[in-house]
Write the structure tokens for this entry.
Amino acid sequence: MKNLMSRLILLLFIMCVAFNYSCTDSQKVSSQNINSDKANLSKVNKVEIKKVDGEYDFYINGEIFQVKGAGLDVNNGKNFKALKEAGANSFRTWRTEHAEMELDSAMKYDLKIAMGIEMLKELHDFDYTDDAAIQKQFEEIKAKVQ
């Protein structure tokens, strides 16, 4: 139970950190300047999951955020512009291999992103009772987030 709880807390932390990658109106940059201006994006949005009146919701900078989006990755679609034009405000991914391109697209089209960060699975013989293996995976995931 302790390992399961640790995994759930880690997953929630990773999702919140990844979802936090969004910019405020004052941070919007043109697509030509995205890479040069990334270093100047110093304001971090506060992302929370709150329970109010028995319901859980996302909040960004204290305001409720209703997720309207889809799952995208480089294998099944790079059409972020069409997603935005369809009324979406967010998308999710499954892995981090193309994170920079996906994060750049999120900034360009003013979309929030829930970046999927793969964790090893017991189904594929990962041993969640092995503290050293858990720590190694944690460090690898932490490096991806940073």
Summary: The chain is about 35% helix and 15% strand.
